[in-house]
Write a structure and sequence with these properties.
This protein has two domains: about 250 residues, ANL, N-terminal domain (Rossmann fold, 3-Layer(aba) Sandwich); about 100 residues, ANL, C-terminal domain (GMP Synthetase, Chain A, domain 3). Helix 5 links the parallel strand 3 and strand 4. The strands form five sheets. The protein has a nine-stranded mixed beta sheet. Strands 10-11-12-15 form a four-stranded antiparallel beta sheet. It is of the alpha/beta class. It is built from 13 helices and 21 strands. The chain binds zinc ion. The site of zinc ion has 7 residues, from helix 9. Zinc ion binds next to helix 9.
Length: about 425
């Protein structure tokens, strides 16, 4: 990857943000009481998160004031967020952003190993959310073929497996948890995944454990590549082949035009390798510079040399979202950590969720809900292993597999929810 032209481009983005995007004028006024006359250095800018964006849209519907106003005169797309939490946010893609974004998509796709002769099956939902549509543009940017399957609600697993076999799809793009679900379905249906035409999985949108990645690689004899993209930030980073071959351990290369920072809970920068909240600055979309957006994802950075020769900063494996964790008895328990223990213990990924709830005698309890089908293989040892590894006591409970699939949402939109906090009130 070529080095971003920094700091000139960053400075240009900061200048645009300060002088042409009303959102930042307001942010500065609220943070320090006045608007700086000279453009401050990046580290001096206030950070913000999705709540501020939501408020801006509510105050000035439909798009809010996070855009250079002239750009809104000609829109190529109008999308909305998935609305997993709160009211969905409407957001526009000005036509002037498209050429720039096409370059970004192409660089990402080439880095991840997608070629013009690939047939790329997209299993994200084709609807208001941007995800599937940005994948279409990304596939087009490298000249590969689009197979728009959409999510399980539109194309059920059985039909999807039949189509990818019939047309010889080579790339599957979707959420990691949905890919794992598909693989289990394929086995139930007697579909031979190892001899299938699929050679590459592109996953994004959620943290995926090394165990789950190995399960997919083994089951399909295919490579798994992770990239990081979001409605609010466009495409941020992607794994090169060297990192993908090590289950993502080398991290994802941050794309030119993006600066990643990791901050602790007091908004102070942490050292390389240390985990904290990922804060992203991006000027990939000229109409809407995103300056110091707090993603809510836990990650770390590295500047160690990468075997691929790329010299950009890399985001080490994302541990999960802040909302994919639950505070229990003074500890933060990550769904991804529980997933690692379950996969190692049961030999293959299972669908599951965590339920933090009140208990009449014991105050609050933390239950791991698992499919009845694994009850015999889980045995009594699982609760002990969970407790030993994660230092808190879990209840291991079983319920109907279909109910778990329904509750986590894994088969529907591919967007999975694994933490239900009935005590913290966020369930
Ligand atoms: Zn690399």
């Amino acid at each position: 990857m070529a080095q971003p032209k920094q700091p000139q481009d960053l400075h240009a983005a900061l200048t645009t943000a300060l002088h042409q995007v009303p959102f930042y004028t307001r942010l500065w006024t609220e943070a320090v009481g006045f608007i700086p006359t000279a453009v401050p250095a990046l580290q001096e800018w206030p950070t913000w998160a999705v709540e501020e964006l939501r408020a801006a849209i509510a105050a000035q519907p439909p798009f809010g004031d996070l855009y250079v106003e002239e750009a809104l005169a000609d829109l190529a797309y109008i999308h909305s967020s998935t609305g997993t939490t709160g009211k969905p946010r409407i957001f526009p893609v000005p036509r002037t952003d498209l050429p720039h974004m096409e370059n970004v998509y192409r660089e990402h796709m080439e880095l991840m190993g997608v070629r013009p002769d690939d047939i790329c099956a997209i299993t994200l939902t084709f609807g208001l959310p941007r995800g599937a549509w940005s994948c279409v543009q990304a596939v087009q940017s490298v000249g590969a073929t689009i197979l728009p399957l959409s999510s399980g609600k539109v194309t059920p697993a059985e039909k999807l497996l039949d189509v990818i076999h019939t047309v010889g799809a080579t790339v599957l793009h979707g959420a990691g948890s949905y890919m794992v679900y598909l693989t289990r379905k394929a086995r139930e249906l007697g579909f031979d995944t190892r001899t299938s035409s699929v050679r590459l999985f592109l996953t994004s949108g959620e943290a995926m454990s090394a165990e789950s990645r190995r399960y997919l690689q083994e089951a399909w004899d295919a490579r798994v590549v992770m990239h990081f993209a979001s409605t609010d930030l466009s495409w941020v980073s992607a794994e090169c082949e060297a990192s993908s071959a090590r289950d993502g351990a080398l991290g994802m290369h941050v794309t030119p035009g993006v600066i990643a920072e990791i901050l602790d809970e007091h908004q102070r920068p942490v050292t390389d390798g240390e985990y904290g909240e990922l804060v992203v600055t991006s000027w990939l979309r000229p109409s809407t510079p995103r300056i110091r957006f707090r993603t809510g994802d836990r990650a770390a950075l590295t500047r160690e040399p990468c075997p691929c020769g790329g010299t950009s900063v890399r985001i080490l494996p994302i541990q999960g979202r802040v909302d994919e964790a639950v505070r229990f008895h003074g500890q933060t328990i990550w769904a991804s950590s529980v997933e690692d223990v379950l996969t190692a213990n049961l030999g293959a990924p299972v669908d599951f969720f965590l339920e933090h709830r009140e208990h009449p005698e014991r105050g609050s309890v933390l239950a791991v809900k698992l499919p009845t089908a694994v009850a015999s293989s889980a045995g009594d040892g699982l609760a002990t292993t969970l407790q030993r590894t994660l230092n808190v006591r879990f209840l291991v409970e079983f319920m109907d597999d279909a109910d778990i699939v329904e509750k986590t949402g894994v088969a529907g939109t591919g967007k999975v929810k694994r933490v239900f906090d009935l005590v913290g009130g966020r369930g």
